[in-house]
Amino acid sequence: MKLEVIGTAQQVSADLVKGKTVVVIDVLRATSVMVSALNNGAKGIIPVLSPDDAFDIKKENGTDVILGGERHAEPIEGFDYGNSPLSYNKEVIAGKLLVMTTTNGTLAINNSLSAKELLIASFANDKAIVNEIKNHKDVVLVCSGNNGLYTLEDALCAGRIIHLLQEQSVELELTDFALTIESLYEINATKLHETASKGYHYNVLKTKGYLKDLEYCFRSGICDNVPHWNGQVIENKS
Question: What structural domains and CATH numbers belong to the chain?
Answer without folding.
Answer: 2-236 (3.90.1560.10)
